[in-house]
Amino acid sequence: MTDAPRTENAGAQANIGVVGLAVMGSNLARNLASREGNTVAVFNRSRSKTDELVQAHPEAGFVPAFSYAEFAASLQRPRTAIIMVKAGGPTDAVIDELMNVFEPGDIIVDGGNSLFTDTIRREKAVRDRGFNYVGMGVSGGEEGALRGPSLMPGGPDESWVTLGPILRSIAAVAEGEPCVTHVGHDGAGHFVKMVHNGIEYADMQLIAEAYDLIRRGTGKTPAEIADVFAAWNSGELDSYLIEITAEVLRQTDAATGRPLVDVIVDEAGAKGTGAWTVQTALDLGVPVSGIAEATFARSLSSHREQRDVAGELPGPSPEAFAVDDAGLFVEQVRLALYASKIVAYSQGFDEIRAGAAQFGWDIDLGAVSKIWRGGCIIRAQFLNRIADAYDAAPELPVLLTAPYFVEALGRAQDAWRHVVATAASVGVPAPAFSSSLAYYDGLRADRLPAALIQGQRDFFGAHTYRRVDRPGTFHTLWSGDRTEIEAEDTH
Question: Considering only CA atoms, which of 72, 42, 39, 68 is closest in space to residue 55?
Fold first, then answer.
């Protein structure tokens, strides 16, 4: 991008602006305003939301704007605006409006859950008109936006000079470090946020399977299982999701007096980022089976019309499931959960590595693990071990082969297999536990049955194969005399 002359914006008061004042945007604006050195301009298409925010929080010193021109006039150069609107068309519309009133060199930040390929497209279009465009993942939900989120900005280096100090001022802090880093260029930030959400899907499904197995196998009440999760949260499973699981399981429904978890319909919703993670992994050729099974499990839960007619299918009755030693089984489930969690994170980091290679991003995997230690939904003590692994070996090809995880998987091995086998034998679905173990065994296998698949592919489609005993690419004349010929190398 060529440098353009930068004019002073006389009378401008704000160093940062927020467009879109629903809950996430409002909370992020309040967070920004609470930090020393920030003055925040706010704008919403509906004037009432702007008025409500400004009136409810006079202490924030917001600079309200009621048109895009007014919003631009209130911002110091380079103007910097964070868009917090619905992904897709609404984001494109706001970008167009801002480019009409901004000047070359100004910065437009998309803080929504945009698909990273949309961000790549937008960044090029915006750059071609002389502006800086940043796709930024924001994790931590409403509370994180207000108190301190984990932030994953992409975009050009030039924008980070202005944005860096602002974002560091509002990010969560873990072990003295702000949970934000310049992830990479164009769509890198939204790509990393997408994978974060995919890992989140897996983590949540694994926790749900652990709860289900403990409840069915031991007969413990949700409140008693809450105590189990609370105890787990003081050890190597220490994490935000384990913590809130205990809180959810302790909650009693005021209307019925029953555990809240028993009156919630068992159909899990999804916003689409899990599916994007899986679809992108397929395009990249990266196996993320734990994440995929968690995503499919949500889909299955929501197909009530199929589940209703399939309830009488033959199989063992989970109601007859009871373990002899409840304490031992709970510990086995804990170990299975930890092992499966390691697989989910390893698969996620594999996808980030592959995405970086495909799209030309220089992503520091250790830095990514550190910014997830606070503010975000998957924040966990466990992430320190990931950071350590990448600090020791930045080019580590498979995360679960780092010494710490090798030891942890060795400890969990027998329990993990016992839990998966038990679930299968009693008819309790545990798709994320099962697929994680299958991936682990596939990864460590000396030889896979893929050799037979290559033979089949060569038979029906002449797709060729390679041999273990000599170089080259070969094809068998299956419809002829079945001699083998050397073929053109397609690998």
Answer: 42
On whether the CB atoms of residues 154 and 99 are closer than 8 A, the answer is no
Specify the amino acid at residue 443: L
pLDDT at 311: 86
The catalytic position among 193, 220, 341, 370 is 193
User: Is 200 considered catalytic here?
Assistant: yes
* Low-confidence stretches of the chain (pLDDT beneath 70): 1-11, 489-491
Tokens of 41: 């301009």
* pLDDT on residue 271: 77
Rounded-to-integer distance, Cα 381 and Cα 152, Å: 19
Which residue from 3, 65, 416 is spatially nearest to 206, judged by alpha carbons? Answer: 416
Q: What is the pLDDT of residue 270?
A: 79
- CA–CA separation, 110 vs 86, rounded Å? 10
Total residue count of the chain as it appears in this document: 491
Does residue 124 carry a catalytic annotation? no
**Residue in 97, 123, 200, 293 annotated catalytic:** 200
The beta strand positions in 171-325, using DSSP E, are 173-174, 177-178
pLDDT recorded at residue 4:
41
Place of tokens 């006079």: 58
User: Where are the alpha helices (H) located in 289-375, listed in sequence order?
Assistant: 289-302, 304-310, 326-359, 365-371
What pTM value is reported for the model? 0.93
pLDDT given at position 6: 44
Instruction: With beta carbons less than 8 A apart as the criterion, state whether 142 and 27 touch.
Output: yes
CA 264, CA 202: separation in Å to the nearest integer?
Answer: 20
